[in-house]
Amino acid sequence: AILIGIGFAIYKFAGLPTKSQIAKIKSWLLYAVSKAEQELGGKTGILKLIMVYDMFITRFPLVAKIISFNTFSFWVDEALDEMKELLKDNKAVKAVIENNIVIK
User: Fold this and answer.
1) Residues 42-93: pLDDT tens digits?
2) b or e along 34-60 (b: 16 or more beta carbons within 10 Å of the residue's beta carbon)?
3) pTM for the full model?
4) Which of 64, 75, 82, 83 could be disulfide-bonded to 57 (CB atoms 3.0-4.6 Å)?
């Protein structure tokens, strides 16, 4: 049982995403939170988080099994902060999200 525990710990550590993978995930999360904001609008925080998490486990199933939900939530918060900055600084992005314009 101890060997299995050690083996699992090594497997989990070896499977952790690299810095470049984390950067890709965080970039994708910006898209995902923007899409959730576009579809669900304001004041729907928990619903948006659920939607983004569902999209995440579909897109990154292995990573979803390895990282904690707390880590995921932290990454989502970072993506939300970045999206808020984009909304302040970029009128085109703001129009897409607020006017529910579909990006193709």
Assistant:
1) 788 899 999 999 999 999 888 898 889 999 999 999 999 999 898 889 888 8
2) bbbbbeeeeeeeeebbebbbebbeeeb
3) 0.74
4) 64
